[in-house]
Known about the structure:
Low-confidence stretches: 1-15
Oligomer: single chain
Strand content: 15-25%
Mean pLDDT: 90
Number of strands: 31
Number of helices: 6
Amino acid sequence: MNSLLKLRKPLSTSLNTPSLHRFFSTLNYVFEENKGATGFIHPTAVVHPNAMIGEGVAVGPFCTIGSSAKLGNGCQLHPSSHIFGNTELGNHCVLMTGAVVGDDLPGHTVIGCNNIIGHHAVIGIKCQDMKYKLGDECFLDIGDNNEIREFTSIHRSSKSSDRTVIGDNNLIMGSCHVAHDCKIGNNNIFANNTLLAGHVIVEDYVHTAGAIVVHQFCHIGSFSFVGGGSVVSQDVPKYMMVSGERAELRGLNLEGLRRRGFQAAEIKSLRTAYRKIFMPSDTNSMGFDERLSEVEHDEDLGSVSVVCSMLESVRDSFTEYRRGICKFRQWRSS
């Protein structure tokens, strides 16, 4: 016990040394006070002389910036964050401690303006696809105003003819994964541990709850909701809600539609169309395709734009190379 106390004493003493106080004072100076046009690069950072650094960039201790990197104005690199390969950051991006962006591979990682890359997130590295051939170009493009939280991984494309794309204004929470060749739209919210396999397409205003998995090549339609713990193995049409160990349709995402400003008349029309297609009163009278056609040719519903959009989303899921829609239960109306 005495030996342990002896070991602890130097450690506790070292935490109060003047050099450590100076270290944290420097960090505070870099990220809070020095926001002018002059910028700051900590002496322990390794910045290649060929890197292009914009005005007002703050680079903290133990950071690495590679030879092909381009940083826009006002970017902040917190301690031990790293930028590798042909990587471009737009203005006012922030890399939190431990974040890694880019890879020394052919191709590029391009990130727009006002993005936050969370603690220990890994963005723009080689994909986990066995078909990828070392030396092929691979790409990742990210838009503006995204918040990508801690421990998230986003990979580049698996081939030179494709790219991984993330749009604008997305919130991607901690420990999410976006695999190669995914296409993510705008204004989406991915809760913690949302895992997207390769080639998944997510449109706009999609909300996923935590710990969900999406099978490769699936398509998640706009304004849809995926319940927590779901395994999505087929497409989710626009405006719909799915959940389950093998996700099934659970109705319309009514609360999400209201929050996004859909009119009461539009929601009423969507509910009527949904019931006619997925909750028929007599399941023996018509098949699924016939019910779709009936709604398409309905004098009232067929003229409502949101209904037409939903029908198109369902139809598209059954075209070649698509996976069809999530299963649904044909409830008899009471």
